[in-house]
Structure formats: C-alpha cells, structure tokens
Amino acid sequence: MRPASALTVDPAHFRRVLGHFPTGVVVITAIDAAGCPVGMAVGSFTSVSLDPPLVGFLPDRSSTSFPRIRTAASFCVNVLAADQRELCQRFASRGGDKFAGLEWAPAPSGAPRLAGVAAWIDCDLVSVSEAGDHYFVLGRVRELDAQADATPLVFHRGGYGGIEPLPPPTPPLPPELASWIERVAGGPPRRVRRLDRWRSNHVLDVDTPGGTRTMVVKAPRVPMAVQSRSRALSGYGTHRESVVLTALAGSGIAVPTAHGYSAEHGTLLLEWMPGHTALPDTPAGRAALLREYARQLAVLHALDTGRFAEVAALDSAAGSGGTEPGPLGAVLADYDRRPGPGDPLLDLARWWLTQHPVPGGERCLLHGDAGPGQFLAEDGRITALLDWELSHLGHPMSDLGYARFREGLYPSGAFDAFVTEYSAACGRPVDRPAIDYFTVAAGLVMLAGVSADVRRPRAHHPEALQRFWWDAVARMALCQVLGESLGHPPQDTAAETGGDDLEALAGLLSARLERSAAGTKVPGGAEHTLLLARALERAVSLGGPGGGTGGGSGGGLPDAEADTAELLGRHLPDARRRQDEVCALVREHAAERLDELVGYLGRRAVRRLAALAPLAGTDTWDGGPAPAERPLGPVLPEFS
Ligand SMILES: Cc1cc2nc3c(=O)[nH]c(=O)nc-3n(C[C@H](O)[C@H](O)[C@H](O)COP(=O)(O)O)c2cc1C
After folding, report:
1. Does residue 389 carry a pLDDT above 90?
2. Residue with the nearest Cα to atom 19 of ligand 1?
C-alpha cells in the first residue's frame, strides 16, 4: 500500500477532472467570537444524514474565514440562486468586509441568512475532523426552508451556470407503428424526436439502402375511434392528405413526398422538408413570401382537375348530402347531429352564407386550409406547401378566403399584396364577394371544429388549452369578417366603445409575452399569448353601429347578462334559456337584426378572449397528462 501522504495524482489534473462534477454553491455564514458576521463560498456542501438531520462541508485548511466560523456554535448554509454570481465571488475572495452593504437577517441560530438565496439551512456545529488538506465539518440541522421556484447557481468545469430543465423525453413509438415505418421506409426508425406538442407528430431518421433519410410521421388529428364517428374528421384528415400528395407528385408544386399511409393507425409518413413555418420579422419579408405563396396557389389552381379523380372520389364520399361542398358540408353535418343547444354565432354565419351564395362552375384543386403557417420557407423562399388535410376540389377563391381568415388569426399584414399577386399570376381579377363567402366558411369550419370540445372541456387533454384559444380567437375573427361585410370600418373609435380597457389588457398581455420570451417558458404559451394580445388589439377595432366592444353599461367589458337582456328585450336568469333564445332570434330575425347580432356576438367573443387572459403564457403542456397541480383550464363564461 502506498503511504496516504504520497502525491500520486497531478493536482491540475485532479482539479480538471473533478471540475466535471457539477456542484451547487453555498455561502457558509456565522457570527464570530467578536460578534462580526463571517462567511465563505463553498462548493463541497453535502447532505449527510436524514435521521438525525446532518449536513457537512469541507473548508480548506488555508481558509482565513473558517477559523472564525468554527468559533461559533452555529452556522447557516445559504444556497445561492442562479442570479447570485456576484455574491459568490464576494464570498470567495479573501480579506475585506464581505458583508459591507449586504442585505441579510439572522437565521434562528443568529447566523446570517442572506437575502434572495434559493434555500437556507440553519445548523449547530457538531464536529470538525481532519480530511487531508481540508477539514470535514458536520452540522446538525435546526431549521431550513427554500424558495419553491428558485433556480440554483451551479459551478461546473470552472464556470457558472443555472439548471435548464431537459425537454421531456420522447416516448418510444408503439412497436406496431415502428414496424410499419420500417416496412414502408425500408429501414428501422432511429433518433425519434417529437415534432410538435399538440399532435404526436415525430421526426425520425431511417437508414435506407440509399443512405440516411429524415422523415416525418404525421399522426391523425384525434384517435381513430373518435375520427370514425365524425364526417369532418374521417373525411378530411391524413388519408386525404396522402391521396392529394401522391396526386401532386411531379406537378411542379413543392410538396413533401408521401411514403405511405397506415389505415390502421391513421398515420402518414412524409419526407422531411427543410424550412420554417414562422413568417419573417420584417413587413417586406412577409409580403415577399406571401407573394410567392400566391404564385404557387395560382399554379396549383391551374392544374388539370382530371389528374385528381381520386380526390374527387373522396369528396363525394365525404359529402354531407347538404348544399355546402367540401369540409364545410361535413363540419355542418356533424354540427347538426350534435346534442344540446345550438351556437348562435355558427347559426348566424351559416345563415349569412345562404344569403351570399357564390356562383358554382369553377373548380380546381385547393390547398384547403390555406394561408400563412401552412408552408415552409428558408432564406426567403418557399420550400414546401404543407397540410393538405382539407384539400378538395372547389372554387379557387376558397383558398383566398381561408388565407384571409388565417390573417385574422396570425396577422401578416400582407394579405393585400398576396391577393394582388394572385390576381396578376392568374391574369384576372379576384372575386371579392366570393372571398368574403369563403372567409366566413373558413371561420365556420374552424369554429365548429373546436366549439364542441370547448363546451365539454377536458382540461387534461393535451390540446384542451389550445382549443380554448382557437375557439375564442375564431369567434373574434368571424365577427370581424361579418362586421366588415356590413360595411363596418376596420378601425373604430376605441374610446367610445370601452376599448380603452381592452387596449390596456392587450398591453398587459404583450408585457407578459416579453417576460415569458425572456424567461424559460415553453414557446407554446408565448405563442398563444401573442395570439390573444393581437386578437384583443383587433377587438378594439371591432364595431360599427351598436357593434362596439363596450357593454350597454357604458365603458369596460360588457356585462354578459345585461347585454343579453338588452338584445332579447327581457332578463332571463337561466343561461341555457338565454342561449336558446339568442339562437331563436338568429333563426327568425337574422335579416332585420344582423348588425345588432354581429355586434352582440362580437362582444361575446371579446369576453371569451378576456376570460382567457389570466392563463396567458401558462400553456406549458408537453403533450403528456397534465400534473395534478396544473390549472384545470380556463373557466369560460357561460355563453348565455
Ligand atoms: C464555486 C466555489 C466553490 C468553493 N468551494 C470551496 C470549498 O468547498 N472549500 C473551501 O475551503 N473553499 C472553497 N472555495 C474557495 C473559498 O470560497 C475561498 O477560498 C475562501 O473563502 C477564501 O477566503 P477566506 O480566506 O476568507 O476563507 C470555493 C470557491 C468557489 C468560487
């Protein structure tokens, strides 16, 4: 055996290797024999025993602070927070008054407890034993506490850091799905990573005989059992997308290759395409991209419909038997089968469509749910058009209507440039009334799709919160479009309508957004907060005669019951009856009271948005079940 004192390891090497072990940093404080506060930064702190409660640390024999600390009967361990780096340096330096100008209070033992620390552990000194060139100090815990949400300071390889939570682990693909991918792609899936939080889409690598390829597995929108019960979900989903993408191969439209569709799982295997869905930051960049998108749509709409016979077959299978073509017909068929009271805004928009029919005749393949967010771009160029689940054969203005509706949800400010470019690329003017029609149709499809879930909220569903946002924002956008069709100017006077409150709310949300962008929040929360803030900003401009955002009570957010009583001419205490009566009013008097109804339903939409405000930035679901302490989702106001 070698003598214990023999130096067998190079000290620099020892330090470097041990530096790979990350430690927290504490400041050990005490009141010395002279009654002065003393302290030193320590990384060698450790928990020792639970019963009895013991902790320990290892001061260097050369420390000048420790001899003063050991004269005290007690010491306090101050666990530094990530923003206390300067404090660490102050207590790691030798000499001087380390406590000058410092905020601290005595712990129960009297030892200094520093302000802003992540945790403190107040101890009685039990023993000091020798440990090489250090001492080992054992302390018995008297009292301790921690700040629940503080991030600790971490020392690692000679530098400081904080702790960043790792992204949630990607759960493995179900074995049957993995073997389906292997069959279709020609190799087993590797490096599977979840693509987005709401739907379980994944990106993965596949080693094919021709080399490694990156692919995307797109999951069905809802479980297959649920999908089979709905005309809209079963007719407009990943199966349709696979048919459309296959038909578009070699057409000149930039689309990902569809490698296969699994009828059993409802999943679609696509080639991965480079690019991002987010629009550029500058107005000019956004306009340039939307102009390019307009040119691509013009090419798409000019394709010979003869090559899309399979899509036409799907269209007739998914038809509602009603008058509305495409996803709108399917969505309305589902809506009509829904139990419970109707939705006055859906009914009103549906009635409005019957009053503004679009002459048929023209038919082409549509992108479907067209607009910003539905294509990828890189270096200012579009790399792929995505999401063909709602694609069908129909009127070309449908894509422009969807893009306008999406403009209400995710404003690009470039819709006019988009329309002008489309018109130039087609060589003919666009049909404005038809765009209006399809904008309302898009709103209906969107709203009918989410409103059923929102009426029976399942807060633990990973998409629940997103659906609340969508419901509220879609209502807002729909009222906006209906208001514009009535000739309401897009800008109304905020002051007269109680918009001041909404402006303040929108400002608050934007501020929250900045905070969450600077912090460690998951982007989804920020994204939805932004959506909400923008919707509220736009809400300020919703209006027209009787259509302002303020309530009958004058100024501020409207009082729901008083507002409904004003509309109905009487007060009804029961929310369900109020809603039924508003539906009846829409059925019987939509024509004469359209303006009033649009204003009323617009104010309702604003109320819903405002009700979601407290949840702004809190949307941090990772797609798994929500933990018990998480809020159960917003409590929406009764629609009445
Ligand atoms: C991150 C970090 C961890 C440290 N850990 C220890 C330790 O575990 N033991 C120790 O004696 N000194 C440690 N030090 C160094 C002491 O803080 C420092 O040498 C000492 O406080 C110097 O002043 P003094 O003479 O007043 O004790 C650490 C310093 C830093 C920056």
Report:
1. yes
2. 92
Q: How many helices (H) and strands (E) does the chain have?
A: 20, 21
> What is the tens place of the pLDDT at every residue in 442-452?
999 988 877 65
Where b means 16+ CB within 10 Å and e means fewer, 198-224 reads: ebbbbbbbbeeeeeebebbbbbbbbee
Q: What is the mean pLDDT of residues 623-629?
A: 36
Class of 175-269 in CATH: alpha beta
pLDDT of residue 24 exceeding 80:
yes
- Other Cβ atoms less than 10 A from the Cβ of 83: the count is 13
pLDDT in tens, 195-226: 765 577 889 999 888 889 999 999 888 778 87
pLDDT at 584 over 50: yes
Q: Which atom of ligand 1 is nearest to the CA of 38?
A: 26
Torsion of CA 229, 230, 235, 237, to 10 degrees: -90
Taking only the tens place, the pLDDT of each residue in 450-503 is: 765 555 444 444 455 566 677 777 888 788 888 888 887 653 423 333 445 556
pLDDT computed for residue 194 by the predictor: 78
Distance CA 339, CA 335 (A): 9
| Mean predicted lDDT score pLDDT of the chain | 82
- End-to-end CA gap in the chain: 86
Q: Among 28, 40, 157, name the best residue to mutate to test ligand 1's pocket (greatest count of ligand atoms within 8 A of Cβ).
A: 40
Reduce the secondary structure of 408-427 to three states and give it as a string: HHCCCCCHHHHHHHHHHHHC
Atom of ligand 1 nearest to the CA of 88: 31
Q: What DSSP letter does each residue of 515-553 carry, written as one string? A: HHHHTT--HHHHHHHHHHHHHHHHHTT--STT--SS-TT
Domain assignments of the chain as residue spans, ordered by start:
20-154, 175-269, 490-621
**Which residues sit with their C-beta closer than 6 Å to ligand 1?**
25, 40-44, 58-60, 63-66, 88, 91-92, 94, 155
- Name the architecture of domain 20-154: Roll (2.30)
The mean pLDDT value for 34-48 works out to 97
Q: Which two tokens stand for residue 640?
A: 């009445």
Contacts 24+ apart (CB under 8 A), 113-116: 113/29, 113/76, 113/78, 114/27, 114/29, 114/78, 114/87, 116/81, 116/83, 116/84
Place of tokens 């520093």: 114
Which pLDDT does position 221 carry in this prediction? 82
Nearest CA owner, ligand 1 atom 10: 59
